[in-house]
């Protein structure tokens, strides 16, 4: 069978510590290939090497090349299209239509054919209505849809996707997955997708490749290993029961007649709602429905109508500086949280102004070891992998110790073993430090056991749910 | 009018006005620009803003010349006062009626600006609203860790520069993965041409303003 081959690949970021050593892989063409492995194992790196972005943008290629049916990829342009993890920095132009024009111009498409191609690409992912909206007004999921439309328009034979659904809700995720299968089946595309959250892939993926960081190699999984892997993600297909708030629960953040809008689009209209003290509350809801905006309103970064109270006090009467010591926000983008340079410096900064003394030096050291960060203490935070950044970010904010902690997608980009460690850390810290936790997550695998309450955000309303 | 030709015209007018002192010509240019802006349906609010912004520097010039210069030349004081407004209104006739996209496309297609610069700048321009919110985010992140980052704090700008560097690298990767190859020919969806009419306007307007500039006081 014809394949996309990675030959004798040795690649390193730092001298003498290679991330891949003499790796050989053959991704079969016209198939859906799934690339799995723990965070930091080099999934993004491999995809960027195939896309030709590395070593141009980082790292050193010691040996090796990438070929499709014996033709070297560096000599043949426009064979590979890539969709990135971060939906925010993948567009040059201001609107989806202009971006698509830019892309087609790059590919030297005849201008008279462009309109048809653009309309077809937008229609393929059902987002014709977004064509002339400014990117700054689109949600993460909407941007990923547009990014897929760009890939459809580019019509490259190979499509690489680097955790494309990290900020996408389950409905949109399922939708995009069916579109990807359609690209494979009807347009004969070769798809290589790197992912942590594997549910929904069992029936779609033709081949699963696992990166083993210790062994420095990448192997296709056999049938049994493959099934074991997917079984870890089975639990979400059944719904778990979750209790509703009890009368004795003490409200900590309350919304009274709150109205939230974004560019005149109403997001939330809520007469009365409360989050409760010392509980872990999960908020779920579709992309762009306003979950992050709600968090921003609670920390006064977003204007709203009505009243939001914190322990019965209107937050409008609390100074931003004081409020920040009461309510902490774990940003969706981990890098937003960082203020220093190395991991150690970040930890020191969090320790300096922490509110409780729960995190002793010993506990911090233990937590770093549990999160597999102990070896990265002197590393520049921006050079960590996305999963590592996320884990560090959560630890930093837990050390800070605000009585209320808002977590926006804290599980984004985490592999399944880190997931349990992070959730355990959050749970324990919140119990010991008496923290009320409110978290947004699209990733629901294994979550039911960790949260106290589940709130769904739909039809511009928040409501407590009995199932997850 | 073609965006880059318009920019050239605006620059030439501003340059010439800097070396002349005809009050009537200045007033004429201000009125012509205002009429042009009104034709392009510029909001009255924007025009009021244009009137307000240069007022203090213009007044400063006026006062300096009229009260503190040895000659106390009232005519020259007015020339300098109106000159400020010429810069602002003529400049606005360009900025408020053309988009960065139009200018970038014109510079790329008509003046052979390397497309790397044209689209790189455009991408950076589209990022501007995000830079503002990034600064707010950095300050909030600081407050949540107990660090107050004031507007003059070096830490705030250090972090902002890091963010910008990171964005620029991601954007460069995104451009490449969206098919952009440096120095490779591209097709153009919107064909931007410099027509005879554009040259006509440029030369015609330049010639027309020479009369008042050199003949009227």
UniProtKB/TrEMBL annotation, chain A:
Membrane-topology annotation of the record: Peripheral membrane protein
SUPFAM superfamilies in the record: P-loop containing nucleoside triphosphate hydrolases
Localization, UniProt: Cell membrane
InterPro entries listed in its UniProt record: AAA+_ATPase (IPR003593), ABC_transporter-like_ATP-bd (IPR003439), ABC_transporter-like_CS (IPR017871), ABC_transpr_CbiO/EcfA_su (IPR015856), ECF_ABC_transporter_ATP-bd (IPR050095), P-loop_NTPase (IPR027417)
Database matches in PANTHER family: ENERGY-COUPLING FACTOR TRANSPORTER ATP-BINDING PROTEIN ECFA2, HEAVY METAL TRANSPORTER
GO MF entries: ATP binding; ATP hydrolysis activity; ATPase-coupled transmembrane transporter activity
PROSITE patterns the record matches: ABC_TRANSPORTER_1, ABC_TRANSPORTER_2
Gene3D superfamilies reported for this sequence: P-loop containing nucleotide triphosphate hydrolases
Cellular component terms per the entry's GO annotation: ATP-binding cassette (ABC) transporter complex
Pfam families to which the protein is assigned, alphabetical: ABC_tran
Domain spans labelled ABC transporter: 4-238, 253-467
Similarity comment text for this entry: Belongs to the ABC transporter superfamily.
Domain of life: Bacteria
Alphabetical list of CDD domains matching this protein: ABC_cobalt_CbiO_domain1
Keywords: ATP-binding, Cell membrane, Membrane, Nucleotide-binding, Translocase, Transport
Protein name: Duplicated ATPase component of energizing module of thiamin-regulated ECF transporter for HydroxyMethylPyrimidine
UniProtKB/TrEMBL annotation, chain B:
Membrane topology value: Multi-pass membrane protein
Ion transport is among the record's keywords: no
Membrane found in the keyword field: yes
Subcellular location: Membrane
Keywords noted in UniProt: Membrane, Transmembrane, Transmembrane helix
Chief localisation class: membrane
GO cellular component, one term: plasma membrane
Transmembrane segments: 46-69, 76-97, 196-216
InterPro entries (alphabetical): ABC/ECF_trnsptr_transmembrane
A Pfam entry, by short name: CbiQ
Domain of life: Bacteria
Protein name: Transmembrane component of energizing module of thiamin-regulated ECF transporter for HydroxyMethylPyrimidine
Upper classification of the organism: Bacteria, Bacillati, Bacillota, Bacilli, Lactobacillales
Gene that produces this protein: ykoC
């Amino acid at each position: 069978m014809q394949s996309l081959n990675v030959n004798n690949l040795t690649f390193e970021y730092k001298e003498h510590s290679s991330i891949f050593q003499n790796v050989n892989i053959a991704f079969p063409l016209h198939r859906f290939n799934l690339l799995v492995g723990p965070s930091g194992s080099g999934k993004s790196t491999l995809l960027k090497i195939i896309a030709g972005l590395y070593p141009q943008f980082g790292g050193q290629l010691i040996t090796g090349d990438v070929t499709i049916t014996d033709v070297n990829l560096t000599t043949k342009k426009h064979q590979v299209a890539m969709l990135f993890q971060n939906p925010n920095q993948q567009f040059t132009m201001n609107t989806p239509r202009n971006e698509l024009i830019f892309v087609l111009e790059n590919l030297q498409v005849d201008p008279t054919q462009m309109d048809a191609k653009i309309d077809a690409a937008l229609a393929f992912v059902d987002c014709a209505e977004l064509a002339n909206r400014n990117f700054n007004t689109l949600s993460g999921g909407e941007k990923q849809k547009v990014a897929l439309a760009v890939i459809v328009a580019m019509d490259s034979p190979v499509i690489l996707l680097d955790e494309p659904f990290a900020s996408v809700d389950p409905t949109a995720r399922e939708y995009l997955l069916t579109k990807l299968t359609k690209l494979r089946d009807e347009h004969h595309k070769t798809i290589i997708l790197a992912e942590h959250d594997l549910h929904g892939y069992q029936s779609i993926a033709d081949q699963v490749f696992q990166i083993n960081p210790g062994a420095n190699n990448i192997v296709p999984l056999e049938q049994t290993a493959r099934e074991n892997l997917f079984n870890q993600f089975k639990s979400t297909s059944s719904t778990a029961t979750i209790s509703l708030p009890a009368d004795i629960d003490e409200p900590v953040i309350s919304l009274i007649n709150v109205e939230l809008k974004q560019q005149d689009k109403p997001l939330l209209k809520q007469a009365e709602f409360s989050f409760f003290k010392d509980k872990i509350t999960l908020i779920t809801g579709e992309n762009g429905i306003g979950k992050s905006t709600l968090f921003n309103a609670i920390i006064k970064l977003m204007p709203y109508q009505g009243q939001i109270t914190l322990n019965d006090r209107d937050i409008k009467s609390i100074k931003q500086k004081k409020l920040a010591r009461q309510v902490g926000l774990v940003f969706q983008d981990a890098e937003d949280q960082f203020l220093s340079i190395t991991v150690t410096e970040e930890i020191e900064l969090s320790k300096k102004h922490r509110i409780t003394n729960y995190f002793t030096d010993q506990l911090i050291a233990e937590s770093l070891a549990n999160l597999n960060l102990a070896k990265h203490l002197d590393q520049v935070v921006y050079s960590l992998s996305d999963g590592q950044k996320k884990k560090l970010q959560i630890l930093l904010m837990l050390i800070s110790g605000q009585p209320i902690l808002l977590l926006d997608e804290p599980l984004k980009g985490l592999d399944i073993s880190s997931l349990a460690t992070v959730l355990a850390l959050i749970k324990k810290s919140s119990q010991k430090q008496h923290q009320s936790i409110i978290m947004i997550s699209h990733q629901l695998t294994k979550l039911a056991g960790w949260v106290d309450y589940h709130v769904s955000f739909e039809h511009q309303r928040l409501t407590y749910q009995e199932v997850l | 009018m073609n965006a880059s030709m318009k920019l050239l015209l605006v620059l030439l007018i501003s340059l010439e006005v800097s070396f002349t002192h005809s009050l009537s010509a200045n007033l004429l240019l201000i009125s012509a620009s205002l009429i042009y802006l009104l034709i392009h349906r510029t909001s009255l609010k924007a025009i009021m803003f244009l009137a307000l912004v240069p007022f203090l520097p213009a007044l400063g010039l006026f006062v300096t010349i009229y009260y503190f210069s040895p000659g106390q030349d009232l005519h020259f004081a007015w020339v300098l006062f109106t000159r400020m407004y010429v810069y602002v209104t003529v400049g606005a006739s360009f900025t408020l009626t053309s988009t960065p996209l139009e200018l970038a496309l014109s510079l790329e297609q008509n003046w052979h600006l390397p497309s790397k610069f044209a689209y790189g700048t455009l991408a950076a321009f589209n990022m501007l609203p995000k830079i503002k919110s990034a600064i707010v985010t950095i300050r909030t992140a600081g407050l949540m860790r107990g660090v107050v980052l004031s507007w003059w704090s070096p830490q705030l700008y250090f972090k902002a520069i890091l963010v910008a560097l990171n964005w620029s690298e991601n954007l460069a990767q995104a451009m490449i993965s969206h098919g952009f190859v440096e120095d490779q020919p591209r097709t153009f969806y919107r064909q931007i041409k410099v027509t005879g009419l554009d040259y006509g306007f440029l030369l015609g307007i330049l010639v027309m303003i020479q009369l008042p500039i050199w003949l009227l006081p």
